[in-house]
Amino acid sequence: MSAVVFAEHNDAHVTNNSQNVPVVIKGVVATSSDKQQLLDKLKAQYPDKPVRDEIEVRSNISIPTNWQQIATTIIDSDISNIRQGRIDIHGTTISLHGKVSSLEQKQAIQNRIHSRLTDLYQLENQLVVVEGEQRLIDETLGNRIVEFESGSTNLTPMGLGILDDMAGVLQRVGDKPVLITGHTDNVGNSTANLALSNKRAEAVKQYLIGRNINATRLSTTGKGDSDPIASNDNEEGRTRNRRIEFTLNE
After folding, report:
1. Domains and their CATH numbers in the chain
2. Which ranges in 46-120 belong to alpha helices (H)?
3. pTM listed for this prediction
4. Per residue in 184-193, pLDDT tens?
5. Which of 83-116 are b and which e, b meaning 16 or more Cβ less than 10 Å from the residue's Cβ?
């Protein structure tokens, strides 16, 4: 699992994904004590993961009442149940994003966090329940990145290998339509990134057609750099943001 906490301007952002990616804490807090509490919480919850500390301490920032307590209490083991997950704290608004396996799990996570909030904070539960065939697709892709050559729509050999696996799983889910979504990092012009993400999604579609996936099942879209799942401040995060997603439409 990976986690990123952005605390600058009282905003925090927690993401979780692969078992192979270290836990990363990034952002700005008011005191060294605040920083250490966040570090200790993550290390306790994820003892088998390396924790990378990228937190700054700035004494001149102001935070809402109980902000530090809220930030530390929501970082616990239940986050591991959220796939491609993210918990954002923007001032006094907390929003949950990502995928869970059942409505019961979605509600349990919401209840756990909500029970620890004061009246000052609002909780927005935007978790998506993913079951059955979509979960099979997600697990087949895992945390692997469908790689392209830099700045182009040419797939690398590793990217082609991943798409071979995806073609296999798409054949197992019958004739259900699939949306292919392209994403980029934030390097360069946003307009150009949007265009590139669309073109890469189309390149994936064409390859899958060549692997005997019916063209009528496949649609594409691109989101450019608008929907990151990791920090764009380092190469590791940018690599994870340059991704392709597959969404099964019922």
Report:
1. 8-129 (3.40.1520.20), 132-248 (3.30.1330.60)
2. 67-73, 103-114
3. 0.61
4. 999 999 999 9
5. bbbbbbbeebebbbbbbbeeeeebeebeeebeee
